[in-house]
């Protein structure tokens, strides 16, 4: 009797486990299919978008009038950015696929710049036309290759999940069609670099910020230590370690780590090898109360800059996060603010000490510059503004414009409705170089 | 329930008294947060210069209101609330501190204009939480403990172009990826996310970069959904404010666990903690 009961209970148990296992399996499959479908959609979308992109570039080649060319170029821009976003949804980040993404993004910015320009006054020149033709050819290659991969995927029922697995575990089978296909695409694009976008484009491209303009002799590890001691006002009993940067750094630098024996807190600092300039400093320590005001912190920041021979700085932005002040200073020369030359500082509001410093922007932009004479007066510039904006403050400033060139501008701070705007009018030609809506404090959501 | 509320507000509006003493000694400057800013906004609103929300953050609207006040009262117009400005302001206006703080605490929509009964300037927030909050306040009122406790501001400063939610999402990613790392390593991971957003080879949004399939292991294995600590949030803020310890790196990897051979071919910039950062 007992045995029968036991057997019964066990078999119910086994059946239950089997059913549970089956359900688990089913659920896992459902999720896998769901993920797979997402990848499939992104992939097929991408091929379709590249198709459209190719066709659209083709159409712009045949166009002549501004009325049709501008919208067509805008369409190229839209398609390129859509394709760029789609690539980001595919599990390719471990595959060298950057060139293709870069290519798409470059097509986007090229067509955008051409689309917003007044093509009646400044039609596409021969070079840009050639660029378009080349883009047309390149996109044809990509399209071909992707179509080919797509065909194989559909025919052999290839799954993206396998690609992901292969990429993650690194034992990729040599005949993974998808990976090979995308590698071919990448190789294809690689032969086509930035310079093919024409000479005007390279200057437009965001350059990685290097410190080309700084001067001075190369310093040693020991000198770096001394500079850190001076700059941070150390007592001398700290544990200091210095490491040289790797060969991938665009400008060689020393990384200094300072351990304070008493407080156990750490300060980190990078110093350029050439000239020994401090690039940035961060001290990590808790700041739990406020004893000094933001205003006093600003004064201390300015004083610190003066002490360390950073001259002609004035406050540009000040913000308080909990008990820490984050300040941005810019240089001013003859009443002209030079925005690219900025230094950021973090000051603890408990004892007023500097706990952060960043001169990266300053070091990459600093140089002797002659400030040009403006060709238009401030009254003329004022007339270029939107009449609905109430002007509250005005001054002259040098900024980097969209083309990554330094331009002299009249800067206006104005309000429209409840918002504040910073508007830059070019002091040479009266163009509206930049309009920024300034950030308002953000309300805290969902809290009583 | 409703009646109860109205009663409560009536009691409050009678019990509020304007305060004479005011402001701490600090010079208040744009970007500041805290009690002095709440008072500054309330007083400016009392005089009709400030029409925005009283939220305790010295933003642009408060700045222009202050300048307008300085101009009207023939003070030097510098947008700083210094000694003379504060004195003039205190003399010219009233400040119902407990009224303001009570409403801030409850998350009500309210204003603080002069010449309008306070009870008419509140629109209660209707949430479930409020019932409990009101109860708590009720007991407090009963026990006559009307002392004003420190109240959290209703808004915060955020780096230009980013919201608190972006910061939260990045803090999640940083915590999941680098919580065992030194602080600077966490800032560097946050900086890599930002460098990717600016790079043409990567998506252009915070979410796009973080959730790119295969880009971050913490996203792939779900560690991103661990609750981030305060350190990772601080690290993200530092990165957003412009600190980049990675020196422009786009990739990083842990040499002990990296399975992908390709990553070793990238030019390396520096090593922080367990991570090697590269171009």
UniProtKB/TrEMBL annotation, chain A:
First and last residue of the signal peptide: none
Pfam family, one: YPEB_PepSY1-2
Chain ranges of the Sporulation protein YpeB PepSY1 and PepSY2 domain: 180-372
GO biological process terms held by the UniProt record: spore germination
Sporulation protein YpeB N-terminal domain sequence ranges: 27-162
Protein name: Germination protein YpeB
Species of the source: Anoxybacillus thermarum
TrEMBL record, chain B:
Molecular functions per Gene Ontology: hydrolase activity
Stretches assigned to the Cell wall hydrolase SleB domain: 180-278
InterPro entries recorded: Cell_wall_hydrolase_SleB, Peptidoglycan-bd-like, PGBD-like_sf, PGBDSf, SleB_dom1, Spore_cortex_SleB
Peptidoglycan binding-like domain sequence ranges: 34-89
Superkingdom to which the source organism belongs: Bacteria
Species: Anoxybacillus thermarum
Family label: Belongs to the SleB family.
The entry's keywords: Cell wall biogenesis/degradation, Germination, Hydrolase, Signal, Sporulation
GO terms for biological process, alphabetical: cell wall organization; spore germination; sporulation resulting in formation of a cellular spore
Keyword set includes Hydrolase: yes
Signal peptide: 1-22
Protein name: Spore cortex-lytic enzyme
């Amino acid at each position: 009797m007992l045995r029968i009961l036991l057997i019964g209970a066990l078999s119910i148990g086994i059946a239950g486990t089997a059913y549970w296992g089956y359900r688990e399996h089913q659920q896992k499959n459902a999720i896998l299919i769901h993920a797979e479908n997402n990848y499939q959609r992104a992939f097929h979308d991408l091929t379709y978008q590249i198709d459209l992109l190719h066709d659209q570039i083709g159409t712009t080649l045949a166009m002549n009038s501004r009325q049709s060319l501008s919208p067509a170029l805008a369409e190229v821009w839209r398609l390129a950015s859509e394709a760029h976003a789609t690539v980001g949804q595919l599990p390719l980040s471990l595959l060298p696929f950057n060139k293709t993404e870069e290519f798409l993004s470059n097509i986007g910015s090229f067509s955008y710049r051409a689309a917003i320009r007044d093509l009646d006054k400044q039609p596409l020149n021969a070079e840009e036309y050639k660029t378009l033709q080349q883009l047309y050819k390149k996109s044809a290659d990509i399209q071909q290759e992707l179509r080919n991969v797509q065909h194989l995927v559909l025919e052999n029922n290839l799954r993206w999940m396998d690609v992901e697995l292969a990429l993650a575990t690194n034992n990729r089978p040599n005949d993974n069609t998808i990976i090979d296909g995308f590698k071919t695409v990448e190789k294809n694009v690689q032969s086509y670099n930035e310079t093919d976008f024409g000479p005007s484009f390279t200057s437009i491209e965001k350059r990685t910020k290097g410190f080309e303009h700084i001067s001075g002799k190369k310093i040693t590890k020991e000198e770096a230590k001394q500079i850190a001691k001076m700059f941070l006002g150390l007592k001398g009993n700290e544990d200091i370690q210095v490491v040289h940067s790797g060969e991938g750094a665009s400008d060689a630098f020393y990384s200094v780590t300072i351990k304070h024996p008493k407080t156990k807190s750490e300060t980190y600092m990078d110093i350029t090898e050439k000239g020994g300039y401090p690039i940035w400093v961060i001290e990590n320590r808790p700041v739990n109360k406020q004893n000094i005001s933001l205003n006093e912190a600003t004064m201390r920041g300015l004083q610190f800059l003066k002490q360390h021979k950073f001259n002609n700085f004035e406050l540009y932005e000040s913000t308080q996060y909990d008990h820490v002040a984050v300040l941005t200073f810019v240089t001013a020369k003859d009443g002209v603010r030079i925005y690219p030359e900025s230094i950021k500082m973090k000051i603890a509001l408990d004892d007023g000490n500097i706990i952060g410093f960043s001169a990266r922007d300053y070091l990459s932009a600093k140089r002797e510059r002659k400030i040009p004479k403006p060709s238009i007066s401030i009254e003329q510039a004022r007339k270029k503004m939107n009449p609905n904006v109430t002007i509250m403050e005005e001054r002259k400033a040098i900024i980097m414009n969209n083309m990554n060139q330094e331009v002299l501008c009249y800067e206006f701070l104005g309000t429209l409705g409840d918002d504040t705007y910073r508007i830059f009018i070019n002091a040479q030609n009266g163009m509206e170089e930049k309009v920024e809506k300034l950030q308002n404090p953000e309300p805290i959501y969902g809290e009583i | 329930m409703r009646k109860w509320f109205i009663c409560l507000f009536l009691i409050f509006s009678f019990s509020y008294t304007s305060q004479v003493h005011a402001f701490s000694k600090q010079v208040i400057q744009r970007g500041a947060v805290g009690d002095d800013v709440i008072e500054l906004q309330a007083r400016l609103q009392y005089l009709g210069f400030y029409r925005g929300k009283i939220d305790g953050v010295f933003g642009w609207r408060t700045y222009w209101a202050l300048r307008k006040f300085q101009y009207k009262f023939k003070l030097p117009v510098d947008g700083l609330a210094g000694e003379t400005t504060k004195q003039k302001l205190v003399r010219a206006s009233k400040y119902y501190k407990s009224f303001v703080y009570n409403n801030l605490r409850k998350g009500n929509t309210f204003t603080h204009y002069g010449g309008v009964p306070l009870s008419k300037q509140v629109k209660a927030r209707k949430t479930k939480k409020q019932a409990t909050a009101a109860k708590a306040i009720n007991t407090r009122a009963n026990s006559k403990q009307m002392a004003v406790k420190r109240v959290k501001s209703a808004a915060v400063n955020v780096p230009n172009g980013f919201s608190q939610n972006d910061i939260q999402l990045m803090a999640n990613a940083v915590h999941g990826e680098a919580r065992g790392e030194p602080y600077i390593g966490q800032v560097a991971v946050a900086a890599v996310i930002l460098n990717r957003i600016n790079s043409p080879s990567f998506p252009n949004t915070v979410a796009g970069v973080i959730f790119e399939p295969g880009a971050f292991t913490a996203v792939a294995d779900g560690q991103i959904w661990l609750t981030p600590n305060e350190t990772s949030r601080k690290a993200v803020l530092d990165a957003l404010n412009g600190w980049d310890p990675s020196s422009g790196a786009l990739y990083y990897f842990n040499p002990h666990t990296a399975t992908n051979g390709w990553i070793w071919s990238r030019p390396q910039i520096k090593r922080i903690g367990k991570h090697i950062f590269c171009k």
